[in-house]
Amino acid sequence: MFNKVLIANRGEIALRVLRACKELGISTVAVHSTADADAMHVRLADESVCIGPPKASESYLNIPQIVAACEITGAEAVHPGYGFLSENARFAEIVEAHGVKFIGPSAEHIRIMGDKIEAKRTAQRLGIPVVPGSAGAVETVEDAERYAEEIGYPVLIKASAGGGGRGMKVAKTTADLHEAYATARGEAKAAFGDDSVYMEKLLITPRHIEIQVLGDGKGGAVHLGERDCSLQRRHQKVWEEANSPALNAEARAKIGGICAKAVADLGYPGAGTIEVLYENRQFYFIEMNTRLQVEHPITEAITGIDLVYEQIRVAAGAGLSVTQDDIEFKGHAIECRINAENPATFTPSPGRISYYHPPGGLGVRVDSGVYQGYKIPPYYDSLIGKLIVHGRNRVECLMRLRRCLDEFVVDGIETTIPLFRKLIDNQDIANGMYDIHWLEKFLETKPFD
User: Fold this and answer.
1) In this predicted model, what pLDDT tens digit does every residue of 180-222 receive, in sequence order?
2) Please, which pLDDT band fits residue 163 given cuts at 50, 70 and 90?
3) Rounded to whole angstroms, how far apart are CA atoms 12 and 31?
4) Residues 383, 338: contact at Cβ < 8 Å?
5) Is it the case that residue 32 has pLDDT exceeding 80?
6) Cβ–Cβ under 8 Å, residues 380 and 11
7) Of the listed 185, 291, 313, 394, which one is catalytic?
8) Which helix (H) or strand (E) holds 11?
9) Would you state the torsion angle of the CA atoms of residues 323, 326, 332, 333, taken in this order, to the nearest 10 degrees?
């Protein structure tokens, strides 16, 4: 096992990794920008190193500074959390070249799955069903027209190197296609420095399902069930559930088994998530995230397995602590992403927290790096915490979530807590009847007017 781990991230995920390291008896190093000098993960770490000014490109994305922090402190491994450098293959290579272990998959695996076209090809080869679409990059608008005729409208044009909805455009007819193709390429170039795009059939009312997998890097792997991430705004997840209200045990075992076998065949080490669309009882691969997910706590809630612990074990060469037969799914869990945003307009709301009271009690977990008096900086993602609630079944979980939302107090800034109070009162949510378009349609009703 490692003696010292550097956490190359900030906020609640840095604190989450720090806690796992502490429980394993591993010393921790926090890196931070000047804007995060008073952050909770900095206060609780054994050591801390300032790596630059507030701008992420000069601090949390500054690879030489992070490598230097490893050398100064003698850190043996780096945990990247999620976001920032977590899926940067070059970072993984550089860290390893300096004799520091990257707690995550190999640079090769990151590259394969980071290229959406190559990821789709790999998924097909490994036996995971994929959405009908182009065989590779769509080089010209004439090729786009030909593919669209083959797979049928509506179609979705997507950036090969992207994610988060950037470089993604819908074309419902041939008349739409030229503009959608040009816009998608332009956005892809601006966001990722790569204007290559590919095309898929647009599913009409799918659920967004993700399968949590763990690989030992030696041909062994397990799945830990699925999470339903269908409640999204502009392709950004808002509310997640485990397990999905749309899947039964048979469907769960089927797709989970396919994904675990694929990860084993790939020789993948550590935690990863295979994301699929689910419509008419069919699964279609869309991408694989080669890192820890924001919503990993709900999987931990229903399985009792610490995913960060498993990541560290695998990186240290100890393998997985569980087999597939060890994994049981108990109860139901929901995560709400609490953002420092206006709940109606989603405008960011940085500032000082004047009063903070998180909920507690049986089956309640709050992953957050904020505290009373903490000043939320305007430079980073607006996520300030995650409310995770677990119950013996979905009904109990929803009732517990309602109570927790009433208890949760964050004064001094605006948050999205009022949005979740609206959602918990909606009958479709209570019935688990929603798809990836549901939330945006709900928001069009102007629930806060």
Assistant:
1) 999 999 999 998 889 999 999 999 999 999 999 999 999 999 9
2) low
3) 14
4) yes
5) yes
6) yes
7) 291
8) helix 11-23
9) -50
Which two tokens mark 423?
């959602």
The first and second tokens of residue 435, run together, are: 């798809």
The radius of gyration of the chain from alpha carbons, rounded to an integer in Å, stands at: 21
Q: Give the Cα separation of 449 and 179 in Å (integer).
A: 34
Distance, CA of 415 to CA of 293 (rounded, Å): 22
Which phi and psi (to 5°) does residue 370 adopt? -95, 165
**Tokens encoding 131:** 């959405």
Please spell the DSSP secondary structure of 363-405, one letter per residue. Answer: TEEEEE---TT-EE-TTS--EEEEEEEEESSHHHHHHHHHHHH
- How far is it, in rounded angstroms, from Cα 373 to Cα 40? 12
Which residues of 120-206 form beta strands (DSSP E)? Answer: 155-159, 168-171, 197-201
Say if CB 351 and CB 375 are below 8 A apart.
yes
Q: Which DSSP state fits 83?
A: S
DSSP 34: G
Distance in angstroms (rounded) separating the CA atoms of residues 245 and 433 = 8
- Judge residue 65's burial from the number of C-beta atoms within 10 Å of its C-beta, 0-12 exposed, 13-18 middle, 19 or more buried: middle
Query: What tokens appear for 28 in the block?
Result: 């921790």
**Which residues are bridge partners to 391 per DSSP?**
332
- pLDDT of 99 > 90? The answer is yes
Tens-place pLDDT, residues 257-283: 999 999 999 999 999 999 999 999 999
Query: Is position 291 annotated as part of the catalytic site?
Result: yes
Distance, in Å, from the CA atom of 229 to the CA atom of 261, rounded to the nearest integer, reads 23
Tokens of 311: 């990541």
**DSSP 8-state code for residue 67:** H
